Amino acid sequence: MDPTEDFLRGELAEKQTSIAAQASVVGELKANDAAKELIDATVEALNALKAEKASIERRLQAVVLGNGGKDNGSGFVNKDDFRQAVVNTLERRLFYIPSFKIYGGVAGLYDYGPPGCAVKSNVLAFWRQHFVLEENMLEVDCPCVTPEVVLKASGHVDKFTDLMVKDEKTRTCYRADHLLKDFCKDRLEKDLGIDPEKAAELKHVLAVLDDLSADELGTKIREYGITAPDAKNPLSAPYPFNLMFQTSIGPSGLIPGYLRPETAQGIFVNFKDLYYYNGNKLPFAAAQIGQAFRNEISPRQGLLRVREFTLAEIEHFVDPDDKLHPKFSDVANLEFLMFPRDVQTSGQSARRMHLGEAVSRGIINNETLGYFIGRVYLFLVCLGVDKERLRFRQHLANEMAHYAADCWDAEIECSYGWIECVGIADRSAYDLHAHTDESGVPLVAYEKFAKPREVEELVIAPVKRELGLAFKGNQKMVVEALEAMNEREAMEMKAVLESEGEVQFHVCTLEKDVTIKKNMVTIFKERKKEHQRVFTPSVIEPSFGIGRIIYCLYEHSYYTRPSKAGDEQLNVFRFPPLVAPIKCTVFPLVQNQQYEEVAKHIARSLTAAGISYKIDMTDALFPLPHEVNLKKKMLFSFATCVAFSGTSIGKRYARTDELGVPFAITVDSISSVTIRERDSKVQIRVDVEEVASVVKEVTDGQSTWVDMLYKYNMPASMPQDE
Length: 722
Hints:
It is an enzyme of class 6 (ligase). With 722 residues, the protein is α+β, with helices and mostly antiparallel strands. Among the domains are: 3-65; 161-242, Herpes Virus-1 (2-Layer Sandwich); 451-535, Signal recognition particle alu RNA binding heterodimer, srp9/1 (2-Layer Sandwich), CATH 3.30.720; 582-621 and 645-713, Anticodon-binding domain (Rossmann fold, 3-Layer(aba) Sandwich), CATH 3.40.50. It is built from 23 helices and 28 strands. It starts with a helix and ends in an 11-residue tail after the last helix.
């Protein structure tokens, strides 16, 4: 538990005890007809204790509400109000909306509107630049429909499940761990009077939630008296539900398939061809961006938990005996929040750590895994994720698959708490082994030796005839178990067989021990010359949930500021130019044909430079008198139109600020225009022919806005009068 929260809960418990004691004293004094002055003084002391209790409750409320207790610059204190303001703005401005809304919508499905599509496109374009181009990766695009045999080999058919419970009367389904999580969080946030020991217990449940078995989840649900959220009916015991959407391929229905739950399997099954394309050289990485599908039991939290979503995944294939990375020094000095497993289990908070130190101390398993963790950090920060609300959490030992060497999640804090947005895992050689075994096609790599090497090789030769007689239908599983022994296990079995003639051997797939006799297997070592080494590569996999990253980016970018009149709060998204849906807006200050021609000329130059923009002629104000000559028109527009249209120009700026547009170009002259920056509201004046190059230079990251302020002799502190 957070030390501050622990202290405040203890202080609150003590204060409640003091209030109860003081109230008892007041009652006794009144019952004994004590002097009025004594009773009044005692009541005053009681009221003072209650005021102190209320103060502690407010401080505790701020702590347990997470974002609610922090000043993140958004202008909000309560995280629920903040979230609702963000979502309302996003839906109103059509960043995203529920799918099929006119028919009532379907939970877990969302449509991206024009600005949402643009943000997503920009994020994916930067992902390609940052990873695919920078690391010279091989990009592929595989089908969403996947034959069952592929997902059977990968383990998804049997194990891709969440635990579900049902309302025993209405049969409504709920995800079991979500119900327990909601119960614990609600108690911690709303029942401030619970004692510190109970609070610590609830915190512990939240910490180990992902590791609870079906029986343990069911026990906790019964212990806490959790019922169906809607009808308050009893719940069934938790049971597994497979999250894949099942289908059939072809009209006969004879080829079962699924909509893919991830994009990675398409890369694994193409390893042999990709390895050949890469010149039969390791290491190399393949990447894929595409849709994935998961039939979530109870989708919620907007874009964070949906049934169809975009994944961007990388499979970096590397020699399992050499996981050094030639570019690790580029990221070794990065320092950011890390949450290693020993820190988690000791109840401490994430701490800042140098990446190089984490690798050298063995906290991160190897350099290649560390390199990708560093690259993921740089990617997220460049997008606009607040680095103070970004941490890398290591999976606990009981969270990791048995084959994984190490796993870390990039978690971003938002109003829903810490959200896993990127997983970076060393998956060992599990996936390639699995598809090799199922398909019969060796997915292996080769290391050719300059000179032949003499090696000693272990040979395990099961005698299938004897094993068939002994185990009949179970022969295949026994043979597979014998062949899967490592050298130590095999040599120990050989020694026992030679001394005793038989040995007890555990077969995992049979879940029991069997008796192996000396005539059933031959084990020996032989020496031979090898001209090459054949091995199955390990895989380092960074997997990005694009929708989750985008939603967290929305929250981290959102804030409000007062209008010029101070009578309303205006919404702003502080997107970096890199991901902003529109890079700039162009509008004439007044209705004037010459200004409109200038605006169209600027628009053409922006298009030629590849810069997204929005041109708005409809709001130009106050047409100038026809009798005023051009020179006077220019003076009129520059000197008086701002005064006439100040409120309206402010509203036009506010509309683009709400879309996160970083620059507004106002045409108020035929030779030069103003460019206004969104967050500072500072303007510079630029020649018409320079506008596109200025905007491109800043949006491409070649220069900063401050650079432009100095270039055009405008002090950075100069405010824009709107």
